[in-house]
Amino acid sequence: xxxxxxxxxxxxxxxxxxxxxxxxxxNIFSINAMGWYRQAPGKQRELVAAITSGASTYYAGxxxxxxxxxxxxxxxxxxxxxxxLKPEDTAVYYCAASRxxxxxxxxxxxxxxxxTVSS
Length: 119
Description:
Helix content is about 0%, strand content about 55%. It contains no helices and eleven strands.
């Protein structure tokens, strides 16, 4: 089993920045990739960004150039730096871990952290 704990959400004005963090514990050696998903009210959960243990990355088109995912393997932590935030980025953001691949097979989930972009 893998446990994931997110932190860093909150309220920010449009154009502002937030940094999300996710700490992993448990059977972390089984993890191949870690990612951030988000789910807005009435919408499906979608993959935002992901990173493998070898530092290969994936970004959804709607965040390219604005968000950066990074991974500290020594601390078992993944960060999502979010810049130039837009109201449409408002959602609950979930940290997730996959034993399989960069963009699928996510079976471990954190509890989620709310990000609200509003003036």
